[in-house]
Amino acid sequence: MFDNISFSRFNAYFTVQKPLELPPYTGSAFRGVLGHAMRKVRYGMKKQCEACPVRPQCRYENLYAYLFESPRDHPYLVKADLSQNIRQEKNYPRPFVLDPPAGGAWKAGDMLCLSFTLVGRAISCFPFMACALGQMNSIGFGAAQGNIFLEAITDGFPSEDGGETVIYDGETGVIVGPGQIFDFNMMTEWAARRLYSEGHAERFCVLFLTPFRFKDRGSLGRSLSFNVFMRNVLRRLTFLSVHSPLSFDINFEDILDRARSVKIVTSDLRWYDWQRYSARQKTKMNLGGLVGEVVFSGELDEFLPYVRLCEFLNVGKSCTFGLGKYELKID
Fold first, then answer.
1. How far is CA 231 from CA 54, 84, 331, in A?
2. Does domain 184-330 bear CATH number 3.30.70.1900?
3. Can you give the three-state secondary structure of 29-92, one letter per residue?
4. What is this structure's pTM?
5. What is the residue-wise DSSP string for 168-215?
């Protein structure tokens, strides 16, 4: 059910109860508060606990560790066809991605939206995530130590009539229904339909909305080629396959070899510096990366499913914070 890099996207709507003063980029702040909130989730805290589908696993050692640490020996992770270097990683990428609201001042009564994506097995952990989001109202955060109240969580993808479907009622704590699930196969079908209706893709633009951090030849990358971009896309999907295994083999080296023939037409990529404070490590961390847009040209059809998939899952380092978010625009 959760194979082939499956994912679901959600929108969590909060009412600001006490004014917030948030940093320019809020991903780190929301991830930190969410982590504290998850530690507060425990069996028996709500009357709905008896009917919760993740009740048998609702304890710190399982769900918190899986979602926030993803250690390689965690029982929820599946064996995947990974390279030796990847298998030696102590932790794998977390199976969720935050898409946080804007920074700045939020006054009491304002409504803010924290979007998030769950990957693979983490989709089944939605009740735990919803419970944790509901606990965020008891935690002050930001410079003003404001707080927020969870009103509802909706499906992040529109329904057939174009509206938003409520998945979780924050007032009652009741899960109303499941969210839509998408996967790599659906991206492949989308690319095939596009090819049939619009012809070959010979040019597309990638617009990085948040810093794209990556390593190239062992150093933090500051320039980008299509080959390097695709290497990071495939690396991201390979890592995530421990949460949602692929049911077929992908010859990454052949794909990357063909990616070398794709050229850059125009680029306004620039470096954006960003810092976050790690309370756990008690230090400031530099998380700068590339933002802006780059236009690629060449034979692009075979790359579209992968690039389209990572449009929802982000690419590069610190994706959990929301870094590496981009939009794909096809000419």
1. 36, 17, 23
2. yes
3. HHHHHHHHHHHHCCCCCCHHHHHCCCHHHCCHHHHHHHHHCCECCCCCCCCCCCCHHHHCCCEC
4. 0.91
5. EETTTTEE--PPP-B-HHHHHHHHHHHHHHH----EEEEEEEEEE--E
Domain limits, the chain = 7-175, 184-330
Q: Which tokens belong to 103?
A: 């920074």
Digit-by-digit pLDDT tens for the chain (331 residues) are: 678 999 999 999 999 999 999 988 899 889 999 998 988 886 556 666 666 766 666 655 578 888 988 988 888 887 666 554 455 567 789 999 999 999 999 999 999 999 999 999 999 999 999 999 999 988 887 666 889 999 999 999 998 888 899 999 998 888 988 899 999 999 999 999 998 899 999 999 999 999 999 988 888 888 999 999 999 999 999 999 999 998 878 888 999 999 999 999 999 999 998 877 666 666 777 788 999 999 999 999 999 999 999 999 999 999 999 999 999 999 7
Q: How far apart are CA 216 and CA 103, in angstroms?
A: 31
Phi then psi for residue 191, to 5 deg, are: -65, -40
